[in-house]
Amino acid sequence: MGTSMQRRQPQATSGLITLQEDPTEGDEVEMYSGPSLPEDILCHIHSFMPMRDAARAACVSHAFLRSWRCHSNLNFSKETLGLNENACGKDAPGRVFYSKVDHILKKHSGIGLKKLKILIDSDYSAKDSHYLNNWLRTAVAPGIEELTLILVPFRAKYNFPCSLLSDGSGDSIQYLHLACCSFHPTVTLGGLRSLTRLHLCLVRITGDELVCFLTHSPALERLELRSCDKIVCLKVPRLLQRLNYLEVSGCAKLKVIENEAPNVSSFAIGGGNTVQLSLGETLQMKSLSMSRCGSIFYARAELPSSMPNLEALAVHSHTERAYAPMLRSKFPHLKRLSIALTGVSSPAYDYLSLASFFDAAPSLETFDLNVLQLYMKNVSVFADHADLRQMQEQEHHKLKSVRITGFSSAKSLVELTRHIHESITSLECLTLETPQSSLRCSDRCNKSGKCSPLVEDLLMEGHRAVLAIRRFIEPKVPSTVKLRVLEPCGCHAV
């Protein structure tokens, strides 16, 4: 198995060698013939290489050059192509990017391509559409499994050519991720029969167009929609028998979600607007995440009681205007509970009321509470600590870990914390993070090596929180419970 040295080096661009000329042409380049292994094994080895290494190998080996022209995984971005201002010289990085990608895909045989990812983060204009259309025309063929197209300029007016997916060309696609473009499937297009995951972000598509597409995608397992603002009503058809994960967030005009898919086990919804939910059959639901105004009230009072198998619940709310009682053992199998009450614009919230979740979830193992706020509206325990409320002891034998982020001197928060470590005998670890503990010097140092200044109210409240812990909580924590207190940075002296 002999080797020979090259007399002319292949061209390189900041770490990525691109095939500007075919190294097999001419007499000046002698290449390593490659190990004496079957070609299919070499191709398999080559497919696992990062794209830069695969391109380098193709420039020095005949065997890998043949493999490169049918490389199965192509990932194009300025980073993977090694493009920066120095490498591009006087040319704009965007123009060089189009030239490089166009050259590589023209050299590609179109055979064996399974994954294509294109990330364009600048310099996109309508005249560049022909580049994208040509690239997709090369890639979307029988055998392609994953297709990702992300246009970071979110106002890019690119219309994804849905016609490329017709006539069976897209039948092998399992994962489709589109961002910052228009996508308008029609009845004639149909769907993708092998598609298991669809991810649309900042995509201009209507609810009717999406339903049309979903109706012809029976293998779908995951549906993720983020900031698709043209969708007003989302209907998930019943024929999606395999759908188990549904995520909808940031869709500004969304008013209604109607889910008829019977086996959704994980559902996440986010956004400030109130959306009418019809979740259909919920017996399979095991994970629920909600981020919207009034989500805690919804979880307490309106969340369907037909979710007996729910194991993880996460709720995030900016505004809570009402308190509703919790039915005992409403979530008998819930193991993980996460509540975030950040930036609350309503009157001070009674944190002690959250203790009712412990009664409702006898199998709860971990509880995370985030109450980080710039300005505390609750009454401080130092202003009124003569009558700290107590609730009856709870027989909870599973809850072991509790973490409170943004811990303050709010009286009701101190009462909740005392109730947790005094009444829940199974508790093993209690972690209290003061408001500044998540903004430590190592994360926020400026050029002088000092921590950036904080809002005065936030700084003062952090130190009051530490005093509240030392005075009202630490002395009463049982020896069986590990108490971890994350205090403000030492440079934030009062």
From TrEMBL:
Residues 1-17 have a biased composition (Polar residues). Gene3D superfamilies: 1.20.1280.50, Ribonuclease Inhibitor (3.80.10.10). This is F-box domain-containing protein. InterPro entries: At1g61320/At1g61330-like (IPR053772), F-box-like_dom_sf (IPR036047), F-box_dom (IPR001810), LRR_At1g61320_AtMIF1 (IPR055357), LRR_dom_sf (IPR032675). Residues 36-69 form the F-box domain. Residues 104-489 form the At1g61320/AtMIF1 LRR domain. Residues 1-30 are annotated as: Disordered. PANTHER family: F-BOX DOMAIN PROTEIN, OS02G0105600 PROTEIN.
